[in-house]
Amino acid sequence: MTMSNARAGWTRRNFLKTSGTALAATALPAPMVWAQNIKDVVLRTTSTGTAAANAVAAKAKEDIGVTIQFTALDTDSVNNRVVTQPDSYEIADIEYFSCRKVFPTGVLQPMDTKRIKYYDEIVPLFKTGKLTPDSQIAQGTAPHTVGFVEGPDSTTFADSETEWMTLIPTTYNADTLGIRTDMIDREITSWADIMDPEFKGRAALVNIPSIGIMDAAMILEAQGVLTYGDKGNMTRDEIDQTVEFLIKAKRDGQFRALWKSFDESVNLMTSGEVVIQSMWSPAVAAVRSQGIPCVYQPLKEGYRAWGGGMGLARGLDGLQKDAAYEYINWYLSGWAGAYLNREGYYSGVLSTAKQYMTENEWGFWMEGKPATAPIVSPEGVKMEDVGAVRDGGSFEERMGNVACWNSTMDEDRYMVMKWNEFVAA
Fold first, then answer.
1. Phi then psi for 194, rounded to 5 degrees?
2. Domain covering 175-302+401-424 in this structure, CATH number
3. pTM of the entire structure?
């Protein structure tokens, strides 16, 4: 044995042997201390109502010990709070189209994808913009276009996938029109149908500018009134023509209401004041859970999609940052995803969510199959009878037929100003 080998052998074996006690006293207790301390961590989360599920917070507390405190606001209020009150939260659960407004301000920190346990299983829509390799990338602010930055301190979006993510996807969906089937005696096939004089005074739109303008664009294109270069990034002239059309329709009495919240949309439909409107899938489910016929209608022009994700506050560090990553990994591990899927949304990682759903639930919500047993909400309320099929069919049929994503346009400020003119008209 050479001297160098002898020294190497001593270093490797004897050091481990003689240092074992010291290692046990220093390195090994660390995870135990961390596990104890994480139970004292509170993560304040600012989000829309979509993401603020008390059941998710309760289950996270049970499983990993972290306390999640939700503050649920409407989309615009979430964006405002995240940017102007960066010390009021640890996690910002915002929509991807809002990322264009929020992330460049520097209030959020890029997330290290190496710390995301299920990163490789995240739905590819959020990495490449394509559900399958052959898919077309939809118009608007597709999540992958604002999903990555170049480094840990960057606020500039990357052109392709990197190791640094802006948001970790939580919920997303493909939106269309909700209709009261018991109060409409003909087939609804197009976004243009909402403007039919038959529904004068019984139609409604969502009053969130960045979302409502997209529904309006789907309507105008379907009617043949206007063809946009990119519905998700309109020119000023396109915005002017769109808002002019909406103001005329409003003054003619076409719209019964402009709603801002989930509950408002549900109440408009359950009361029968509105029979056709912009709607979110779980809102339709909430109407149906009250025994009222309501359908989330597939339309020939396709869906308007949206997505949301969790971002970390720029100042988050230490144990709180570790706890936030632990919470995100837990969120993607299946229980929360299954809960969201049962609400009618889609989860960022489908493979883990599937493990927490019955074959009947997965078949109904994800594969477009007829229910083999009653479909119930996460709270146990019956939503669908045996034989029911989800509106719009399977995950691939819905998310594979997206015409545009909710967007922040280059002319966003101008668009919001013009939208407010419509609201005030």
1. -65, -20
2. 3.40.190.10
3. 0.84
